[in-house]
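Dear colleague,

As promised, here are the two records you asked about, laid out in our usual form so they can be pasted straight into your sheet.

NAME FIELD: protein one
SEQUENCE, THEN STRUCTURE:
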Amino acid sequence: MGCRMTCTRCRGCPNSCRGDAEFDVGGTPVTLPGVQTRVCPSCVEREVVVPNIDGLHRVLRDLERQADWSLRLDVRAQRGWWQSAAA
């Protein structure tokens, strides 16, 4: 019996399971809880199944923008711009 999916690295037959997937996105750790993953028993290649990849990219872009905005606000506060802006 053949596999429904084959490993992209060794063409083996990966096993499917659910678990947390951890990534590093631009230096920020990101965890996707309870996602389907496929692990190849031959080469241990792991593939995460993301059914709404466009939605994930949108969330990551939003988080990146928020982090950039927070960083800019923090730099302004450290430089004393809050006092001059409030006056």
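NAME FIELD: protein two
SEQUENCE, THEN STRUCTURE:
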Amino acid sequence: MAVFLKRMALFLTIFLVLFTGTGVLVVRIAATSGELYPLDEMIERQLRDNVLIGPALSEILPWYRFRMTVRAEPDILVVGTSRALYIKQEHFLPETKFYNAAGATQNLPAYRNFIESLGRVNIRPRHIILNLDQWRFNRNFFDHPVAKMTQEEYDYNNGYVYDWENIIRSLYRLLLSGEYRPALSVPYPGNVGLTAAVYGDGFRKDGFYVWTRKVMSEAYRAGTAYTELIPAMESGRDMFAFGDGIEIYGESVQEVEKILALCREKGIMVTAFLPPFAPSFYRLLAKSGRYEYMTEICPALLPLFEKYGFELYDFTGSPIIDDAMTYDGYHADDRGSHRMLLFMKAHGSVLADYIAEE
């Protein structure tokens, strides 16, 4: 009975998608945006035509990011979360082989899995730039649903297989949300994927993420987009779970050491950083007295980095960027990302000879 009901629900979903007004939008998605192109076709299209890749159905992205890393064979590779997405080719000298794979991994064990998976196909960058999100060192963060959402591990070395049942459900959910109604008119033709074609948001072939919607927002231009984070900060929700004083989550420190040991074994140099917040927002975090653990992460990690001969930079409360250099209070944009790299260069980083001046 349960199987019958499941299949009936799927049939009804397909019927609604294909035979209601939203079906028109589904057809346009497939026909004009390439949302359901096979992964290899997306990649070849990007490499050939230099277009953005931005599917609304993001489940394909970890495999896309991994395969693009393999194709790029970078000397400098960014591994991390979305807070490192805005480091780009132009931040380095033109001859530098660079790729930004941030976003393919969402947690510390996944960082290690990604690096190990690259090794299985004989890809070994000379340098890895690694971002370490502060909340990963707060035990209380792991009690929140957002932490569970980022625990996925991916089998990068096997091909991605479309789950059509899930895709149909996801498409219909997207269409009901109304977010992609503008797809009836595609402002960014040529880009691949609904998000890239409709909003101009997507990945370049160097892995840098073009976030057109944020750039066009008044809050971003005014440097006030972080105000959306204040309710989470005041209530201790999700990424802004309150810390236990200055206590650092030991399991995350152990995971960092595993990553460093792996990179040392493979002869890969690591430059890691704790990402910045918008200065005005960080002052609110500090004033609250509930996020003191953030000030103790770097002291806890430095002995490990010294042990393995790697670099660690702490930009948590750094004044080197201003509010207008973050998209939303905790993602440094391309200007803020370049400021971090220039700081590293000025302080003798092993990356200094690769980093371009402003």
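A couple of things worth noting about protein two: The mean pLDDT is 88. The domain at 58-160+191-346 is CATH 3.40.50 (Rossmann fold).

Best,
R.
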